[in-house]
Write a structure and sequence with these properties.
By secondary structure, the chain is mainly alpha-helical. It has a domain at 15-107. Helices cover 73% and strands 4% of the residues. The protein is globular, with a radius of gyration of 19 Å. The chain starts with a strand and ends with a helix.
Length: 146
């Protein structure tokens, strides 16, 4: 049985089974991310699949919460998700909750990548012009834990 317990200082101690499951889940996610990147790079323009895939992932999560989120018809990303990604996630997951959590992990990773891609040109521009951007100060505030 997977269990965690607290020691006398109130720190949660994870059992070996929990740690093994976490490592397996992380390994699965990394393999899935590599597969997605390979598929995105086949388009020669990652954003052509990446942004629609983020929409499809979000729609899946919304549907899990009982909210219908209509998607444009004929999205290649929807077919890719339903035929390739979701079956892999369902085969790995032990519950519907784990399916939802894994889809959320992939969505978080995809959106972070999209956001970073949009920030980089501004940061490069500001660096070349010698002027710090507002993003630089926001990022340094985040790094400082603000």
């Amino acid at each position: 049985m997977l269990r965690s317990r607290q020691n006398r200082q109130g720190v949660t101690i994870m059992s070996d089974e929990w740690m093994k499951l976490g490592a397996l889940r992380q390994e699965f996610l990394e393999e899935l991310k590599r597969y997605i990147i390979d598929e995105e790079e086949e388009t020669h323009r990652r954003m052509e699949l990446q942004a629609p895939l983020a929409m499809v992932l979000l729609a899946h999560l919304a549907q899990a919460e009982g909210v219908q989120m209509p998607l444009p018809k004929g999205l290649r990303a929807e077919t890719f998700f339903k035929d390739k990604i979701l079956p892999e996630i369902r085969a790995f997951a032990k519950s519907d909750e784990e399916v939802t959590a894994l889809v959320a992990e992939i969505l978080e990773w995809e959106t972070a990548s999209i956001v970073q891609r949009c920030r980089v040109p501004l940061m490069v521009h500001d660096e070349m012009s010698g002027k710090p951007s507002h993003l630089d100060s926001e990022l340094s505030d985040q790094d400082a834990g603000c």
